[in-house]
Amino acid sequence: MRRQFERIDVENGEYQAWDADAHPLALSVAPGKRDWLRLETTAGGPNPKELADAIRRFAQIQDTQVDSSRLESGEFLGVLYDLWSVVRRKKGHRVWLLRWLRR
After folding, report:
1. Which of 4, 9, 53, 90 supports an S-S bond with 14, CB 3.0-4.6 Å?
2. Count of CA atoms in the C-beta half-sphere (13 A) of 100
């Protein structure tokens, strides 16, 4: 994400993030050039509805559909893999999120 995000956008709160269990994450900027992006869990429990809604909004922006039943059952990573496969095919190159998720 450090390669794709810009510091100013993170500082301005333009991104939202969740872990695989739908816990919201706080993105912040740390001093330094290499490890400037921080991800920290936030107070409170998981918020699967918020994550599912964000995935749906992203799919809509990408002009594609997602399987809502899979989102409702909590299959966030599987839905994201499928969504990114569609996006990658449309754009014709590897997307940073797929590389990151495969680690």
Report:
1. 9
2. 12
Q: What pTM was estimated for this model as a whole?
A: 0.71
What residue has token string 């014709």? Answer: 92
Q: What are the residues facing 24 on neighbouring strands?
A: 18
Answer whether 76's CB lies under 8 Å from 20's CB: yes
For the chain, the farthest-separated pair of C-alpha atoms sits apart, in whole angstroms, at 42
Phi, psi of 24 (to 5 degrees): -65, 145
Beta strands in the chain (DSSP E): 17-18, 24-29, 37-41
pLDDT at position 95 over 60: no
Instruction: Report how far residue 18's alpha carbon sits from residue 2's, in angstroms, rounded to the nearest whole number.
Output: 16
Dihedral sign of CA atoms 54, 55, 56, 59 in order: positive
